[in-house]
Amino acid sequence: MIDRNTPSDPRLQERRGDLLGRNALLFATALLLILAVGAFVLLGGMPGGEARATPTVRVSPRSTATAVSASPSARPSATAARSAAPTVAPSITTSAVGTPAQLVIGGQPMGTVVAGTPDYRRKLNGTRAPEGQRWVVVPVTYTAKVGFEYRAADWLVVDSAGTRHGWALVDADPALGAGSVDAGAIVTGNVTFRVPVDADVAAVVLRSATGADLMVFRVR
Questions:
Q1: 203: in domain
Q2: Rounded to two decimals, what is the model's pTM?
Q3: In a domain, 24, yes or no
Q4: In the predicted model, what is the mean pLDDT of the chain?
Q5: What is the mean pLDDT of residues 190-214?
Q6: Taking CA 219 as the corner, what is the angle to CA 174 and CA 105, rounded to the nearest 5 degrees?
Q7: Are residues 98 and 43 in the same domain?
Q8: Are residues 30 and 121 in the same domain?
Q9: Domain count, the chain
Q10: Residues 206, 167 contacting (CB under 8 angstroms)
Q11: 128 close to 122: Cβ distance less than 8 angstroms
């Protein structure tokens, strides 16, 4: 009779082999389970072993066009506004030859002045005008309200072609010349110019001390 507890029992050896096989299978299963759990944890716990996407916060871009409040330096100053304004030329008085016009200098009424009708001459004080030209004599009368100075050099004529001709430096008697007139006084004299023989005088002009046109007497 054979003792079943002895190692020589073939059935005992078979049971031990089955037990070892089961233990190996359980160990392998447990190992796979541990690996699966680890993978689950590492991959974010998503089913099927997929990693859970990290939520992304989307920020809509702000518009680059922002309102900018004007700083004091960016605002135009009153000085800049005044300097940007166009320069206003002094007003020009217009009249007809032979008609007295108000003479205003620096905003102050000085009296009246009148330029007479131009008188064309071939000779002046015995001197013939250069070839192709002729003399033009314009009588001028100042009536002073307050005292002021005057000059023949402040006068010029504009011919029909638009050309301006200054004082010819010679005058028919009595010459206006230059001087001063007292308040209540009257001064009359001639101012002479030289123009082309084929050009008539269209206007007689009085200029200010700065050379700007001050008064225009148009020829009828």
A1: yes
A2: 0.59
A3: yes
A4: 75
A5: 95
A6: 70
A7: no
A8: no
A9: 2
A10: no
A11: yes
Rounded distance, CA 94 to CA 202, Å? 13
DSSP track, 129-151: PPTTEEEEEEEEEEEESS-EEEE
Helix (H) or strand (E) holding 205: strand 201-207
pLDDT in tens, 105-148: 888 999 999 999 999 999 999 999 999 999 999 999 999 999 99
Please say whether the beta carbons of 137 and 119 come within 8 A: yes
pLDDT, tens only, 48-95: 444 444 444 343 434 333 333 333 333 333 323 333 333 334 578 999
Sign, Cα dihedral of 141, 147, 152, 158: negative
| Per-residue tokens: 160 | 């029909």
Q: What is the mean pLDDT of residues 27-35?
A: 70
| Percent of residues in the chain assigned helix, strand, coil, to nearest 5 | 20, 35, 45
- CATH number, domain of 163, equals 2.60.40.1240
Shared-domain flag, residues 42 and 100: no
What percentage of the chain carries pLDDT values higher than 70?
A: 62
CB 131 within 8 A of CB 157: no
